[in-house]
Amino acid sequence: MTTLRARQKEDRRKRIISSAKTLFKKKGYERTTIENIAEEAGVSGVTVHNYYGTKAGVLLALVVDSDEALISRLDESLSHKEGDLIELVVQFARVIMDHAMANLEKDIWRQVIAAVTTEAGTRLSTAYSKLDQKLAYTLVKRIEAAQAAGTVPAETDPVHLGKALFHLQNARFIQFISSDEMTRDDIETRLRHDLSALFSICRG
Amino acid sequence: MTTLRARQKEDRRKRIISSAKTLFKKKGYERTTIENIAEEAGVSGVTVHNYYGTKAGVLLALVVDSDEALISRLDESLSHKEGDLIELVVQFARVIMDHAMANLEKDIWRQVIAAVTTEAGTRLSTAYSKLDQKLAYTLVKRIEAAQAAGTVPAETDPVHLGKALFHLQNARFIQFISSDEMTRDDIETRLRHDLSALFSICRG
DNA sequence: TAAAAATTTTTATTCAATAAAAAATTTTAC
DNA sequence: GTAAAATTTTTTATTGAATAAAAATTTTTA
User: Across residues B76-97, what is the average pLDDT?
Assistant: First the structure.
């Protein structure tokens, strides 16, 4: 049994997020005020603060929603030919970048990255980090499969490798959104260079 | 011949940065207001804005100063036994973390990381990114030396490898400052895991 | 030394963030 | 079914970042 209050709250949450997304895409992040969002959602400005703490909090909540959708689609977006780790990571990066660009502009993603660090430890930032862990785990699973197929050495730790590759990909993603000029292809090239240089070293 | 105006400007810059550093360390970033900084430096609040744009801009300027000092000391802080890439990167990471903690608290570093992304493209953010490139180049030089000594394969591209290793180290540094509980040793362990997993793969 | 140029300060405004009191609405207990 | 209690939102007020424009000051130049 959900109480009326719980349903009203859930409804307000949805209206705030949906209004914020519309306004951020229409007017950009900076030029959208909390009051704008509140008005569009039919609540007071203070209520938006009560729900999400900060304007960045609203943004983070909105991104967490869309990233949950990404994660459920990510695995099927990756091809299933095992063995080529570089192609796996490059494909992975491409799916992430495409998803990001389909949802928000680069300058808004910069706000997201900033919010994750400044709001470190808060509920929403933690939720975002958990999603990153899930993304990394998608890589881990693929590496385990490749290891089972014999294309990745038995002595490799798939969890550590998956996390390392995710971090590298993430660093390049941040570089991608940090400059409007940087294209997806630029990042792919860089990532290939990173990986082939790293994989040219053996037995650390 | 430097004009009086140029000297006054330089002097004000120095006073603002020095006042800001003192206050940030004493009261923390959030609780230091631009007016506080301005008063301590003997200028008006608007002048601080005119000079550095934002409060984060002041912080960035201050970090750029201290990072320039780091770079000149970094190379000599690293030991000179060639060959062990993992130890090289771990040492590198340690010097950076120690330097960071000697200068500012973690919560202030979180503001720095955030500012670099939100202010992407501005003069100060660009200066910060240039310093990162210099840091990466320190790694590149070491890898070139190791290659000359025969401990790194001839087919390895030292520039690409150096940049990749720097990105990985940087990702772990951000993780370090993102949580007050994360210790330097935790990060070292993770970095070792990253690197040995990556180096267990050959011929990408 | 007076006019011109550059720079800082004053003044004013918008908006994020936060706190406390007031108002409204839902829930609970009778 | 209604009144008291509990919860939640709104109103009101304040601080501080950021920005713009006008006014005042100081340095430079002619």
Answer: 90
B120: left (phi over 0), alpha (psi -120 to 50) or beta: beta
What is the C-alpha separation between A167 and B170, in angstroms, rounded?
9
* pLDDT (0 to 100) of residue B199: 95
Strand C footprint nucleotides (protein C-beta < 7 Å): 6-12, 14-20, 26-28
B126 touches chain A (CB under 8 A): no
Cβ B34 to strand D below 7 Å = yes
Measure CB to CB from residue B111 to each of A118, A164, A170 and give the nearest one: A118
* Residue segments in chain A with a per-residue pLDDT below the cut of 50: 204
**Which DSSP state fits B43?**
S
Sign of the dihedral through C-alpha A111, A112, A116, A119: positive
CB B194 within 8 A of CB A160: yes
- Using CB atoms within 10 Å of the CB of residue A108, give its burial: 0 to 12 exposed, 13 to 18 middle, 19+ buried: buried
> What pLDDT does A190 receive?
98
Give the least confident one: A2-6, A95-99, B94-98, B146-150.
Answer: A2-6
Written as six digits, the tokens of A51 are 């729900």
- How far CA B176 is from CA of A7, A171, B170, in Å, comes to 39, 15, 9
Smallest CA-to-CA distance from B89 within B204, B12, B192 is with: B192
B154 in reach of chain A (CB within 8 A): no
What single-letter amino acid sits at A26? K
Q: Which chain A residue's Cα is nearest to B111?
A: A118
Distance measured from the CA of protein residue B65 to the C1' of nucleotide D16, in angstroms: 27
Q: What is the pTM of this model?
A: 0.93
Mean pLDDT rounded to a whole number for chain B: 93
CA distance B66 to chain A (A): 21
CB contact under 8 A, B167 and A164: no
Cβ–Cβ gap B167/A171 under 8 Å = yes
**Would you state the pLDDT for residue B164?**
98
Distance CA B155, CA B143 (A): 12
